[in-house]
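Re: that backbone. Tokens:
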């Protein structure tokens, strides 16, 4: 059996590949390569053995078949420590390959491009690459496999220091390779599953999901927990499409709060500002201008907004920036910040400023929740709130202004943890009761927070009233209209009480639990 050391290099992402090949050649390796990688190395003046020279067979079918040959896969899968296999290698003139460096056709990048054809997507499904990766990972006892260009320097350093790549590193590399091919296959499966011709259910018997790490986080919800942020494979959207302009590194809790703020602010067509604390909105403003919207959100709860996250659905201007720097905020997010606003906000260097895609992007199609031993998945409740289609069940109907306020309140309710009650005017939350174990408790929190401002305001609830006590409490504070799903066995009691107290009530038949 030949003592010649061989490495196979065939990559789509050619970052660092010339430098790696140079280092390997200096260490006595023969470089076997294919297609564009071979051309890139040859153009750099490096000696390259084409895969067709190893196989004795040319690339065929427009490059669809290059490496699917026993001379390649025998060289990768061989176990030279076994005498019988050494004899087979000698019999067939196969030189073992001890390093495989492969990354795959850019399938995910291809399907992310607008207007890409189905044929182009299919042609970017790699066949030989995953086969080589899986073969090399399987035979990690004898072969090192690399899919990540950031690993190249480490591989060369090990080879230079000890002449070989350690078994510990080879196991790590094998794990990366299997994860790489698994994610690649999951992305292809998801693409085909969504084709109309596939006729597949949104909830198949086997579900494969792919997420790519965006960044390690300092810790999780608490310092004793480790954490990282992963983005869905495919087109970047929502928080995965963020660009941090200044400030400290984002934490787990920052991202969780930011997600809550961003999902709510995208509900509104007009200029909106949303302040979030501990994943619940504490102040929401809707107005003609962004400046007015922020002031409404701030005044809704000037205590809770301190140290919170604020999101806008319009670019941030100088006037708003001057208000934002008056208090301590963890994160400010918007589609854009103008130059003057950035200059003003840069005075507080610790504030994290994020631009997140265009306004209106990042609305998800499904919700996922991890549970012990499994995953819950449901379609996202993405339909805009419109209470005007509801049923007026009281003698008095809401006024035009009350209809607007009811719709606003119920839009916010949709994003508040259950049990949820929101007291609001046409464009401002006045009191929010979130995450309570009983509905009257949530109502009392919201009404108490609204205080005198509740006079003439409206109240929204994420689920029906089990008792008329909420109506009684709301009327005591001066609330004039209520929106709720309806459906309680005791609805009649709530309706009669509304009629007696002069309140309007609308049943939507639509619940907004958020757990």
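Recovered sequence:
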């Amino acid at each position: 059996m030949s003592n010649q050391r061989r490495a196979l290099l065939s990559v789509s992402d050619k970052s660092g590949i010339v430098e790696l090949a140079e280092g390997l050649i200096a260490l006595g390796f023969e470089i076997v390569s294919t297609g564009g990688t071979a051309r890139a190395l040859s153009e750099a003046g490096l000696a390259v053995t084409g895969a067709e020279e190893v196989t004795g067979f040319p690339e065929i079918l427009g490059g669809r078949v290059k490496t699917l040959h026993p001379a390649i896969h025998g060289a990768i899968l061989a176990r030279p420590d076994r005498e019988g296999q050494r004899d087979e290698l000698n019999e067939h003139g196969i030189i073992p390959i001890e390093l495989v460096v492969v990354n795959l056709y850019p399938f995910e990048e291809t399907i992310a491009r607008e207007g890409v054809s189905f044929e182009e997507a299919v042609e970017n499904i790699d066949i030989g690459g995953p086969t080589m990766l899986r073969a090399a990972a399987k035979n990690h006892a004898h072969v090192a496999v690399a899919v990540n260009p950031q690993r190249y320097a480490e591989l060369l350093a090990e080879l230079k220091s000890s002449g070989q790549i350690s078994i510990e590193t080879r196991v790590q590399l094998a794990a990366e390779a299997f994860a790489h091919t698994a994610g690649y296959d999951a992305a292809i499966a998801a693409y085909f599953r969504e084709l109309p011709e596939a006729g597949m259910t949104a909830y198949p018997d086997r579900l494969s999901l792919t997420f790519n790490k965006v960044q390690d986080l300092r810790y999780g919800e608490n310092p004793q927990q480790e954490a990282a942020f992963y983005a869905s494979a495919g087109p970047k959207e929502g928080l995965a499409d963020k660009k941090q302009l200044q400030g400290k590194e984002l934490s787990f809790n920052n991202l969780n709060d930011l997600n809550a703020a961003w999902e709510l602010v995208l509900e509104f067509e007009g200029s909106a500002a949303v302040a979030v604390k501990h994943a619940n909105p504490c102040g929401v403003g809707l107005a003609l201008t962004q400046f007015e919207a922020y002031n409404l959100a701030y005044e809704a709860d000037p205590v809770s907004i301190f140290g919170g996250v604020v999101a806008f659905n319009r670019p941030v201007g100088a006037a708003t920036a001057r208000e934002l720097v008056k208090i301590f905020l963890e994160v400010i997010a918007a589609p854009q910040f103008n130059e003057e606003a950035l200059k003003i906000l840069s005075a507080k260097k610790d504030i994290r400023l994020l631009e997140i895609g265009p306004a209106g992007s990042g609305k998800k199609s499904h919700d996922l929740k991890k549970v012990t031993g499994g995953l819950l998945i449901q379609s996202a409740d993405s339909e805009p709130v419109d209470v005007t289609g509801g049923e007026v069940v009281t003698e008095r109907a809401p006024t035009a202004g009350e209809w607007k306020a009811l719709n606003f309140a119920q839009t916010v309710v949709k994003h508040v943890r259950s049990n949820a009650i929101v007291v609001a005017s046409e464009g401002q939350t006045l009191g929010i009761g979130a995450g309570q174990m009983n509905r009257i408790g949530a109502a009392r929190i919201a009404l108490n927070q609204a205080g005198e401002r509740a006079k003439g305001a409206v109240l929204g609830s994420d689920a029906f009233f089990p008792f008329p006590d909420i109506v009684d409490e709301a009327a005591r504070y001066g609330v004039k209209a209520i929106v709720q799903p309806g459906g309680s066995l005791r609805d009649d009691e709530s309706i009669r009480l509304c009629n007696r107290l002069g309140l309007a009530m609308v049943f939507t038949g639509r619940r907004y639990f958020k757990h």
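The radius of gyration is 30 Å. The first strand starts at residue 5 and ends at 11.
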